[in-house]
Task: structure prediction
Amino acid sequence: MLENNLYYFDFSLNNQDSFINFSDQKGVLVINENANQEPNNLMLAVNQLNNLIITYSTLQHIENSETIQTKIIYEIINLLESNIKQNININYSPFCAYFSVVRYSFNTYKETYKINSLQEKCKLIKNILDAYVNNRLEMYKSYGYTHTILQVMADYATSKRSGNIGLNLLTNIFEQLNFILVNSYEDFINNNHCFIYSDKNHKKVFDEFIKKHSIKFTFRKNRDNKYPDLLLKVKQHFFIIEHKLTNGNGGSQNAEVNEIINFINYSENNKNIHFISCLQGNFMQYLIENNKQSPKNKIQRKNIITALKKNANNYFVNGNGLTELVKAFL
Result:
């Protein structure tokens, strides 16, 4: 039996999701499991990059070597950009990680390298390279470089891939309830229990859906034309879902939670359209009302309850609450 939306919020608070996920214990491997194996493309690229940096460092102590130094900088630029195009994780290398130390980032380089001139890129890489050689190279050489650092960086970046992890968590929930992933609008409409990745591979399907159902979806107007994470169909009901996998209770985490609280303030005239905010991770525990709750979390809890009371068709749940909710619609 379907309960009111406050019930599913309380259900989620009282049935917390597991904070630890052991379903993928290996994670994303970027180096070989055995050092005796032939190096993979990333390892080869980092070896080449390290050799270029060492050569550049040596040339700094040789007179009249500026032309060769510039040539090496060009080679480094070509190497970095070649690996970007091939989607090889060169950003896990010590040199690329150092970009952040000088208040830049390798992601910024990836986003701008096509529009910046070679002269601009040469100047940028030279400045970073000089700083890296002066402040890191000898230190790293004294300890002895190993490719272990590449895997360490990849493991650390797991939290930054939480969007994909979150979609996998949602997919597991729906597949366990016998929902299927579809790829076209026709399949979406003709199935009673299905879903699409509206922010990934199925943006056109979502656009067609909101057009043919006269859905305004004004949420996106203030969010740079943002798409929701997932669209779920349960018989004649449609769940527009925003998902966050949020652990900890700091500034960035609060911003993520405030975004999905805002999401359930939107509504449509069609009562079969539901805005669902799904919050997984351990942040949900901070929304439980008790004496230890911070003032900010109290306000967040209050805002969730206010939005749910105002919009009876919307829901704020965790993974367990979402499962309970979807079962009620089946």
User: Anything to note?
Assistant: The chain has 13 helices and six strands.
